[in-house]
Design a protein that fits this description.
The structure is a homodimer.
Chain A: H1 2-13, E1 16-19, H2 29-32, H3 38-53, E2 59-63, H4 64-68, H5 71-87, E3 92-98, H6 102-113, E4 121-124, H7 134-142, E5 146-152, H8 158-161, H9 172-184, E6 196-200, H10 205-214, E7 220-222, H11 232-236, E8 245-249, H12 251-254, H13 267-285
Parallel strand pairs in A: 1-2, 1-8, 2-3, 3-4, 4-5, 5-6, 6-7, 7-8
Helix pairs in contact in A: 3-5, 3-13, 6-7
């Protein structure tokens, strides 16, 4: 089960998921100018970040939207980036948030678990229902693949659907979380977690604790560290013995070189220092 | 407003949305063998279907999952297909069902409303909340673009989230439908419909009528005709004076040539006959 591999990485490396939501505008000009084409520049920018964080990151998350926005060229960089991460034996999450049914979902499964865009995990959207996840399950069972289903996000708009309450006062995201955990029980790893994980935004103290206890078999992908305001203490409440979740930071790591104290330093080294700092903050907070 | 262009197309052509969920396996061998490369074969297959239905279809819907599954090559075919449709002055819906927040949603908006993958409408997923739609609104207001937000689907799994009821007995999809219509009020066309539309699966008689009356400013994209079991009578209940919705058929049209009675006929002509038949069935049922 892929989740055991991720669990082991977290034990060894800490909880940091390096988010490669990379934009051409993030590349320092001093590096960008060495390349003739944007495609080379963007891939090599990613490659340098990966090379410098490979022994610090539990995994990588590549946000496909940033590459789709660049058209075919961007998707080639996406393809080469996820392939490069996998070639190093590291784990990569394709943050695609796809969601569709039947034959269409089968095509998305094929797109992201086979062929050119193959990754280890993808993120998925549950709005159409749990049957929209069916086509991925065969890959989870037989091909060392996993999914992170959106459960609860931290944006204001989360109130529109996720926070609606049913007659018994249960919130939509609680219902989704329970359904996801139940589905995941068929795909448990030896680590005690399922290869069907959940995307879990940071929340207030009491709720985080309660969520971690109730969804005790669900591994979390937690977005929003750093640039989006998440802090180590908030994260620590979603962990159990320091494991059970990876925490993503994208701009916080990618743009660390823009911090005043890093002036003149190499962008990829700055990314490394930032990832180490984040790793240690989370370890410290979860003791 | 793009919705007025679509409304006009429906008035002139009927309600058929030709779904280009095209798969290499759909191409008749007698046609496929003329091409050296799959890429050429798939694009020309789409092109012939488009050429034969251009005066019958209100619009086209291209399901990106089918193309993503073929990697970079497939996405080039997607790009060339949507560009070809637009070059003919026809309307194309990119069925991408993307859903994300903030900067990521901005990138999806850029990906599908500008540049290589530019389409007229995209489908979006509302699970993360209405603020996840914000980045598209600027394009709706200024660039003749529109969105169809998932509201209610017809798969079994729809019960998992969409059919949950809040304390007052209101279903999640009703709440979503109302929120989408409210958001859409800022983007109304002269036709009386908004460029913020909804994806509305076929449903039973009473409910369909009630939905059409309540969401009276929301233009619907209705999937599931033909191959997925939808019938003209069901569709007619979602129409008002024959307009207010387009109805998608993909395999029903693409694979019409496989019907016994069409043996030996050209696949694109069969697609045309099937689209005409569907158009006329819906017109007849909605009188």
């Amino acid at each position: 089960m892929i989740i055991d591999k991720l669990y082991k990485k977290v034990s060894e490396m800490g909880n940091v998921c390096v988010g490669l939501d990379s934009d051409l505008s993030y590349i320092p000009f001093s590096y960008y100018r060495w390349f003739e084409r944007d495609e080379e520049a963007l891939f090599n920018y990613n490659k340098r970040i990966i090379d410098e964080t490979i022994d610090v990151a539990a995994c990588y998350k590549v946000q496909i939207a940033y590459y789709e926005a660049l058209g075919i060229m961007g998707l080639r960089v996406y393809k080469n980036t996820v392939a490069y991460i996998r070639s190093l034996g590291a784990i990569v999450i394709g943050d695609v948030k796809r969601g569709d049914i039947k034959d269409t979902a089968k095509k998305y499964a094929k797109a992201h678990f086979e062929g050119e865009f193959e990754v280890d995990f993808i993120t998925v959207n549950p709005y159409m229902g749990l049957d929209s996840l069916d086509p991925y399950l065969n890959y989870v069972e037989n091909d060392e693949k996993g999914i992170f289903t959106l459960v609860r996000t931290s944006n204001m708009g989360a109130h529109d659907i996720q926070f609606l309450e049913d007659k018994s006062g249960k919130k939509v995201y609680d219902i989704v979380g329970e359904k996801v955990q139940k589905l995941g029980e068929k795909y448990m790893g030896e680590s005690g977690y399922s290869s069907i994980g959940g995307v879990m935004g940071l929340t207030h103290k009491e709720e985080a604790k309660e969520i971690r206890e109730r969804l005790n078999k669900t591994f979390f992908l937690v977005p929003g560290y750093g640039a989006q305001g998440g802090k180590a203490e908030d994260v620590s409440l979603l962990l159990k013995n320091g494991n059970g979740a990876v925490v993503n930071s994208s701009r916080g790591i990618l743009l660390a070189y823009k911090k005043e104290e890093n002036r003149g330093l190499d962008f990829a080294k700055c990314a490394r220092y930032e990832a180490i700092k984040m790793r240690d903050e989370i370890i410290k907070a979860s003791r």
